[in-house]
Every structure is written in structure tokens, then in C-alpha cells.
Write a structure and sequence with these properties.
349 residues; binds 4'-deoxy-4'-aminopyridoxal-5'-phosphate
Amino acid sequence: MSNAPGVKICNTILDAIGHTPMVRVNSITRGVIAATVLVKVETFNPGNSIKDRMAVKMIEDAEKAGLLKPGGTIIEGTSGNTGMGLAIAAVVKGYKCIFTTTDKQSKEKVDALKAFGADVIVCPTDVDPEDPRSYYSVSSRLQREIPNSWKADQYDNPSNATAHYEQTGPEIWEQTDGRVTHLVSGVGTGGTITGAGRYLKERNPRIKIWGIDTYGSVYKKYKETGVFDKNEIYPYITEGIGEDFLPANVDFSVIDHFEKVTDKDAAVMTRRITREEGIFAGNSAGSAMAGLLQLKDNFTSDDVVVVVLHDHGSRYLAKMYNDEWMRAKGFLEVTGMTARDLVALGVSG
Ligand code: PMP
């Protein structure tokens, strides 16, 4: 990577991946959490998400292994951000891309992939992963049928977690001068938390690694009981985190605790990050920050907490940043006049 400090010209946009800013949280946690809270703002990557890091790593490892050959087709089941990273790298490196995704994903995410020339196949959300209609099954079938194609397989591909072991973890360590005491990150494929968490624990085994999960996902119960409970699985609104199966990239031994956050709390907090910190963050950033607040009593003033903000708010303009959508979901309670409106009108109680 040549986006390192001091490098003036990137040879391609891929060299601009990584070395994202670490920003102090000033408003949301003030008076609530004793610790220093920092966010790793991954929206600064070229595809506006952390997933650029692992997308390029998966491609380059596949090239080295001879699995992805010149002129080949990259296939993946992706909720959007991994697709974006793969699509950018495919443009630069001359590959074709076909993505399968679910009908739950933001239209903006799908359109953004198409902007890079990718084909996107939208599949139903509410079917089992083994169902032939699921976005996992469809991508596997395409890989079997299309010659010279390679499936990135972000859930089980070890290059995913390795990217974060090599980049995200060391950046967090260096940016905090080794003072980080807690890492808080949403868990989807597990690549971020497993890779960055493993690196940080190797540097300092006392660092706590806390995963953010969502209601409707199996992770928290599996971590706490060792039971894979299908009853935990139901459709949810939160995007990018939680799963209905156990990907190889989730190393439960690296993760000390899972915290579940509701769809509503995640959506409301997503908006607060933008309005109170000026950081245009995506939905899983809201989950992570809301989860952090749920855990507020665990910190001292000596603690340095790093929260990963995985993606950008622009992908959620029609959802969490849209008042009508929020009201329709029951996530915005204030429908009439607020107290401030009444005061402004001179109405007193
Ligand atoms: N947030 C968003 C918006 C994501 O797209 C993802 C990736 N699915 C995650 C969080 C979780 O990251 P990881 O897959 O590395 O666990």
C-alpha cells in the first residue's frame, strides 16, 4: 500500500486503501462513558468501506494461488461493501464481476456496484442459506457454471481476516500508541474483528475484543453457550452484521463478548453519529456505537476504546437517514411538534 504517510502519488486507486483516520468521539459519549472513545473511520477508503482492504487481499492471494487468472470473472455473494471493493479492484485489474445480493439491501448499494460495471443478481432474504434461491447458493452455482470464474467466499476465505491482521490491527495499535484497551466492532463475516482483534491481542493480551451482534443472529448465543440455536434466527433490518450460520472467519476465541443491539437503537444511533459528530456513518456504525453505550458501565477513565465505523451514510439515504422510512418502521417517535417547536411558538405548559 502506498497510501502510507508521506506518499504523494498512488499508482492506482487501490494504493489509496487503508491508513484511515482515527477520530475522537466528542459529543455522544460525553458524560456517559468515562473512557476515551475513538472511531476508526473506514469510510475514507476508495469504496467508502472497510471491505476494500479484504477485497484486494482476497484477489491478490487468489492471483498468487493461480485461482484467479487474467480475464477471469469474480463471483461473490455480497451485501454491497465487499462487492464495491471487489468491483473497484476488478476495474483496475481487468476482471469481470457478478454479485448476488439480497432484496433487503439498500438500492443505493446495488446501483453503486452497477456503476462499476458489475452484474448484480438480487435474491430473496428470507430463505435458508442452503436453499437454492439463497444468495449463497446462487453464487456457488454461478461459479460452477461460468468458466474461468473464482468465488471470493468472504465468509470462509482466510485472506479476509488476514487483511485486518496485516492492516487494520496494526493501524489501530500505532494510532493509539499501543494505548488501546478495547476494540468494539460489528461482526458480519468476522474478518474485521478476528484479524484486527488477533493482532491487538498478540501485542497486548489484556485488550478486550467486543463484537456487536444483532437480534435475529446466532453469534451471541453461540459464544455464550456453544449452542447453534436456529430459534435465534429471524429477519432483521440492521445491515452488514449478524449471521444465520457460523463463518470460518469468526474466531470466537478472539472475541471476549458479544453485545446485541436492536434495529431501532442501531438506526437511531446511526443518525446521531452524523448529527452530533459530523461523521457520515453507516448503519453498522450505529449498532457499534449503541452497543458501546449499552456497555458504558464497564469503562474507567484510563481506558481507550476504538470503535470501527465500517461504512458510509450515503448508502442509507433511503433508509436510516429518511424520516418517512424511519417513521414507517416505528423508529422515529416524534411525529408531531417537539417541545422545542412549542417553546418557539410561545406555547407553555
Ligand atoms: N458493517 C458493514 C456495513 C459491513 O458491510 C460489514 C461486512 N459484512 C460489517 C459491518 C462486518 O464486517 P466483517 O464482515 O469484517 O465482520
